[in-house]
Amino acid sequence: MSHVDTDTRRAVEAVWRIESARLVAALTRMVGDVGLAEEFAQDALVSALEKWPREGLPDRPGAWLTTVAKRRVVDRWRRDERFQDRMVELGREIVENDGRDGFDAVLEEDYGDDLLRLMFVCCHPVLSTRARVALTLRMLGGLTTDEIARAFLVPEPTVAQRITRAKRTLVERKVPFEVPVGEDRDARVASVLEVVYLVFNEGYAATSGDSLIRPELCEEAMRLGRVLAGLLPEEREVHGLLALMELHASRFRARVAPDGSPVPLAEQDRSRWDRMLITRGMRALLRSLPPDPAQPRGPYALQAAIAAEHARALDPEDTDWTVIAALYLALVRVTGSPVVELNRAVAVSMAAGPAAALEIVDSLNGSLDGYHLLPSVRGDLLERLDRAEEAGAEFRRAASLTRNERERSLLLARADRADRADRPPTVSPGTVITTEGAREPEDED
Known about the structure:
It is built from 21 helices and two strands. With 445 residues, it is mostly helical. It has a two-stranded parallel sheet with strand order 1-2. Helix 7 crosses helix 9 and helix 20 runs antiparallel to helix 21 (405-420). The chain is elongated, with a radius of gyration of 25 Å.
């Protein structure tokens, strides 16, 4: 492949990332089937990969893809009687000028609502969490199956199967291409936010592999969050999630040492934190606040408020752990999550000492079995209480449970240090766990 061909292919891929979600969304509204819509969009992409290296990049590449996709639908409409019946059932009037007028009206109008509909379809609760994540990255992120598989360190056939099964489920369950209203709306918005945050979290604190972070996943999640904030400007929790992601992402440059090992929050060089992202996060946080201070805040807004407390502290010693512990208590009351309670224990340990925190951690026994951060935190607290032998055992148990190699190395190093009983005078719990990266156990397909 020549240098020119390589550059053109990269240009095609860049255009596809920008235009694919709009195209698939508009086509889904037209044909009523997200799988079929992607098929037409993919046909347009294949055509671009074939023609653009020879003919050059068109002046309006997005419009070019739209035109080709439109022709594919018209071709199918002409030759496939069942497809004609489907279009009639959907009330599509695509008969004049080879269907051109009707298709142009659909594909060239404002597509914001279509994107929102597509988000709700991809994140529908009838799908498993992993299927929702894969389908969202495929349809809204424009990622290939291989890219999704590499990002999550799973076999490509596994991702392909999840996406195929998800499309089939949407058809079988007759999931409508619509923005939900009424009582269903809040639950459906929460499902979309959950998927976006899962994508971000997998990039921010990878569950497996050799790398602690995968910035490309975080960037994609933040892009989706910004799109969502534009489409649902009145939804405070959307802004809360965006604030949370922006504030966490501001620490990227300081989170990983040159050798790839994690740098604890308390030891990060805060001058390397991205002040622009912090400013954007703070702005989004303000938009997440209820108009009446007495009204409760949502879970993402509360987590963003916790992240903001860290962002305000230019020195770790300036962190207001009492405020953070109170915010975690409010978050526990909203979510009832044992993972949140574990994070609250960390904040309590800094505000009131490790003994008070250990009581909280021990109350979680049985509710977080197999979750490596539970023994991680417990080991840290025991070490700070001069119970080195017990701490070493907890760190080793945590190391055996994590699937991330960088995290495992850190935990084993902590275990060795505890065994030698030569710990530093003070050890921040940030060396093992902070508000960063803790998540609920995932469901299965």
